[in-house]
Amino acid sequence: MLQYIVPATGLLFTLENILWINIGVFVGSVFAAIPGLSVILCVILFLPVTYTMTAIPGMMFLLGIYCAGGYGGSVSAILINTPGTPHAAATMLDGHPLSRKGRTKAALKIALYASTFGGVFSALMLLFLGPQVAKIAAQLGTAEYFMVCVFGLTIIAGVSGKSIIRGLVSACLGLLISCIGTDPMTSYDRFTFGIPRLYLGLDLAVCLIGLFALVEILAKAEKKLGELRLDTAKMHDDGKISRQEYKRMVRPVIMSSIIGVLVGIIPGTGASEASWFSYNTAKNLSKHPEEFGNGSVEGIAAAESANNAVTGATLIPLLTLGIPGDGTVAIMLSALMINGLNPGLSLFTTDGDIMYAIMLGLILVNLFMFIQGRFLTTLFAKVVSIPQEILTPIIVIFCFAGAYSVNENYFDVAVALVFGILAWILRKLDLPPVPILLGLVLGRMTETNFRRALLISNGDPSIFLKSIYCKIFLALIIIAVGAIVRGKWKEQKAAKAAAAAQKESN
Amino acid sequence: MNKRILSASLALAMTVGLLAGCGSSGGGSGSGGTSGKGSSWKVTCPWAPSGVAAMVSQKAAAKSTQYSDKITLVAEAIAGDAATVNTWVMDTEANDPELVFVGEGLLSITSIIDPSKLQFKEDDFVFVENLYSSIFVLSAEANLNIKTIADLEAYVAKGEEISVAVNGATGSEAFLAASLFGKMGAGDKLKLVAYQSAAEAAQAVAKGETQFAVSHQSQIQETYQQGSVTVVCAFDEKAIENGPFAGVEGVGEKGYPYFRNRCFIMARAGTDEATVKELKDLYDKILADEEVVSWLQDTMLLEVDTMSQEDVDAHIENVKSIVNEYKDLVAG
């Protein structure tokens, strides 16, 4: 490891990288602060910008957006009781009440400190755990990789929204779309309809622009958006946090960072799950549980440290196995692969200096997020008030320019448009888009490894259970699916009970 | 409502303006020849950015400014093989400052196996230079203890199934494996297992997923040095002369078919002869650079291999004859 750290430091500490980190952090904070604009949308819109960059500045820029998005979401959650991103919902429970008590700056400060700690902790975990996991990944063969892919596909159960069935339908659609192009095992064409540009398959970034960005524009056009007026006079408190409050924050921040890392490593779970789980854990362990929901510093600290502790952890399966921990990092895979960096052990050996530079860079990203948060939060907060009729055309421009710039042709612009309309129809049918993304990312890898493994074994399916790694992954698949299905079942049960109680009270 | 109309009009006007701007500054801007002041020539490699061709192209591009004040080569890798070259042909015209790599895979293999995939003909290109040639090697799982062609022939004579890891289902490696084992009379026992990259195929044999693999020398070197594989033979006329595999027998010595892997740099047909010559001269200067030569030989385990149009034609025909003879073993 040490042999890579020194050259990595040299590669990382350049003016270009520092600049891109700061641009990424700024853009991520602003996007996440605006309700309705998600981090995933931001990463998709800015992904094409990285295609002209080398690996390190490109990844630094995207990681800047990703990490700052974790913190930025808390700004509107605290100020206007509307989470900028879904994972800031837990922060809102105590952040806004504390703001109403006249301690807005203090609430934002707690969120920033906790986010920074969680992010740095997570980056250190990536630095130390990543190479170890990569060593194991190097021992995996075709059958084991297929099991890893299936494990990755369990993410679908976690991101299916209310209905797992609908999630599976979306995922199947994604898997089907991933079949477009040349068959990886025979080189014959599939679903290309004689269109030469389709031999390559569909570009992931172009599909994502349609699926996640253009669809948002179509959805905005449908509804009347209320104006978000922010009174920045709210932020004129001194922002002081007492020593007692700092002491109370220590335990939930550490606990939540550990929870965030553990949750982040598991594909299918993400920042939202981590922040709610941590919030509940902090409440159960607190000496002042009655303060939760009424402006508890522990509540804000727990939720924010957890959702930022996920950021580095989700990169562990991505960089070592090519399995994205969540939808946002799935997009970052494109930025790596465009630079010829394929996930696996070789990433940590052949390209060790680049990889360690990226991992060390994640620490730097969190530190710059802290600096920008300290001095620019008021500015981020003001962005919340930008009228949608100005923001929307700007996003449209980014969408089309992004789609064009991927391969510099209009065909991709048309593809993005088709995917935008498709996503809009799916939204009408209440089918979630994230499983489509996972189907697109994992489809080809799953299919290739499945067919190749059967070719190697002459059609004997027992190859998927032969090695110890296959058995471990099978157990993990069963546990993950079981846990997610149980969670969904509990959710439904609780919802039914609540509905019954409401009916009774009426 | 007014705000929505305003917003929609703004978005439409900006989008149309932007895309129109993109189109006018896009491909075919035609800085034409190289006679003016400095001009950039984009060199598109239609294979993986981490592959051998892309790395060599990158190296040549980095050296271009050292040998020319007028031409700057800009290397780009867009994986996609036929699709990338199709797009390139569609988007370019004569004298565009664009170059593309085309190998025997497209000109000799795809043109026979799946000609509908090619939206171009050989006539659409004009040959500039060949940068290198690579001698593929056949490696075997170490436990099999196969170190020579004689060992291999003895193993094949046992009549057991033969599995070979190759890069792509119908790539050069697949045809080399098919021609060797087919000529040995073991075509019916041959199972080609396609991987997504040459490096992945080279790793497969070390993990015991297949008994053999065909790969570039550089891709099997690390595994070979770790003792996980043995290197049986080289797909060349004679034994390998340099590098870690020096002395490994060439299949040509025993009468088996072979070809080297070559990737030609092409310009769009109709490009001025003087421009093509200038580009060829630049590449020749780069390929004569001592640093480039030693990098190709020692690191990439390749050979500098400048060629003429006649050499190119001969290479394409040789590969075509092998493909025609063994296509049933590869493509079924």
What are the salient characteristics of this protein?
heterodimer; A: 506 residues; mainly alpha; globular; B: 332 residues; D-Maltodextrin-Binding Protein, domain 2; 2 domains; 20% strand
Description:
The complex is a heterodimer of chains A (506) and B (332). With 506 residues, chain A is mainly alpha-helical. Helices cover 75% and strands 1% of the residues of chain A. Chain A contains 22 helices and 2 strands. Chain A has helices at residues 2-12, 15-33, 39-50, 55-80, 89-100, 104-138, 142-153, 155-158, 164-178, 204-222, 243-265, 271-285, 297-313, 315-321, 327-337, 345-349, 352-383, 388-407, 410-428, 434-456, 463-466, 468-505, and strands spanning 181-182, 189-190. In chain A, strands 1-2 form a two-stranded antiparallel sheet. In chain A, helix 1 (2-12) packs across helix 17 and helix 4 (55-80) packs antiparallel against helix 15 (327-337). Chain A is globular, with a radius of gyration of 22 Å. The model of chain A has no long low-confidence stretch (mean pLDDT 83). Chain B contains 11 helices and 11 strands. Chain B is an alpha/beta fold. The model of chain B is unreliable at 25-32 (pLDDT under 50). Chain B is 45% helix and 20% strand. Chain B is globular. Chain B has 2 domains: 3-134 and 260-320, D-Maltodextrin-Binding Protein, domain 2 (3-Layer(aba) Sandwich), CATH 3.40.190.150; 136-259, D-Maltodextrin-Binding Protein, domain 2 (3-Layer(aba) Sandwich). Chain B starts with a helix and ends with a helix. At the A-B interface, helix 18 and helix 20 of A face helix 1, helix 3 and strand 7 of B.
Strands, helices and their partners?
The complex is a heterodimer of chains A (506) and B (332).
Chain A: H1 2-12, H2 15-33, H3 39-50, H4 55-80, H5 89-100, H6 104-138, H7 142-153, H8 155-158, H9 164-178, E1 181-182, E2 189-190, H10 204-222, H11 243-265, H12 271-285, H13 297-313, H14 315-321, H15 327-337, H16 345-349, H17 352-383, H18 388-407, H19 410-428, H20 434-456, H21 463-466, H22 468-505
Antiparallel strand pairs in A: 1-2
Helix pairs in contact in A: 1-17, 2-4, 2-17, 3-4, 3-10, 3-15, 3-18, 4-5, 4-6, 4-13, 4-15, 4-17, 5-6, 5-13, 6-11, 6-13, 6-14, 6-17, 7-20, 7-22, 9-20, 10-18, 10-19, 11-12, 11-13, 12-13, 18-19
Chain B: H1 2-25, E1 39-45, H2 52-67, E2 71-77, H3 82-91, E3 98-103, H4 104-113, E4 125-134, E5 137-141, H5 149-157, E6 162-167, H6 172-183, E7 190-195, H7 198-206, E8 212-215, H8 217-225, E9 229-234, E10 261-268, H9 273-288, H10 290-299, E11 303-304, H11 309-331
Parallel strand pairs in B: 1-2, 1-3, 6-7, 6-8
Antiparallel strand pairs in B: 3-10, 4-10, 4-11, 5-8, 5-9
Helix pairs in contact in B: 2-9, 4-11, 6-11
